[in-house]
Task: structure prediction
Amino acid sequence: MNKSLLSVADVNAKQINKIFNKIKEFKLKGSTKYKGKSIGLLFEKHSTRTRLSFEVAISRLGAYPIYINKSDTQISRGESIKETAKIFSLYLDGLVYRTSDQKNMEEFDRFSSIPIINALSDFEHPTQIISDVFTIKELNPKKKLQDLKIVYFGDGNNIANSFCIIAEILKLNLVICCPKGYEPDLNKLKIKSKNISIDNKPSNAVINANVIYTDVWTSMGMEKEEKKRLKDFKAYQVNKTLVKLADSSHNFMHCLPAHINEEVTSEILNSDNSVIYQQAENKVYTAMAILDFLLNQSQT
Ligand code: CP
Ligand code: NVA
Result:
């Protein structure tokens, strides 16, 4: 069992289902079983939802959240990740880490003895996707998760990568719809399932979709490419014309923050099919469940 959650690939189907059950449990009933523990939150990039949901989750579990802005630490003055990871391990019981480079995350994990939780990197956003697939399950209690057609529109980076990995593990039916040149690398992600496909044509990909998911075209750190991306992704906007081709009771999802009227119109974001707030709320319970999953095993 991995000590950390750096990638969705660090958990198997059984463990994901265990986390789903815990999310459900924490939604019904809290627990302060981690009183006396201290969990750090090291963020190199902006965050509203992930930071807050983890801070709240840590407090609700009875533990103490310590927010650490990277620029306030000695890392920004050249101290190595190796040294920092060793020191953090002396003080903290776990670390929630948002970084611009997955390699930093892996290095931090290698030199620390505490669980590290990926709170978004350039390559993955595992806690977001675990939470979102739980939300899809919660919203469709009468259907088998595997029978739903999930279509992701947008860039083939962190969210799409984590989506592909969870789809491989849980055998989900996932279409990634993005322009040529922006596809996730299915080989690198070790995707073998025939139920995961890439489609460059939005009007084809969206047909009968039960879940439509999108994310920004210009992720944090990619701002220099914004102008080109606005042009390249133009045909991939989730709007009224596109969603007409989906199942009429589809769920619209977005990890947020949204760039309104770029990847999604305001009308769709605020439509009756939109579940963005339920999705965001579940991040707290997912954070509790993931912390519990990792802290529990590090204690035994
Ligand atoms: N969805 C998400 O990770 O949002 P933040 O960047 O606000 O944390
Ligand atoms: N792909 C987006 C996700 C934000 C939650 C980014 O990396 O900025």
Remarks:
- The longest strand covers residues 38-43.
- The beta strands are 38-43, 64-69, 94-98, 116-118, 149-153, 173-177, 196-199, 211-214, 251-254.
- The mean pLDDT is 97.
- Residues 120, 157-159, 215-216, 219-220, 255 surround norvaline (ligand 2) (CB under 6 Å).
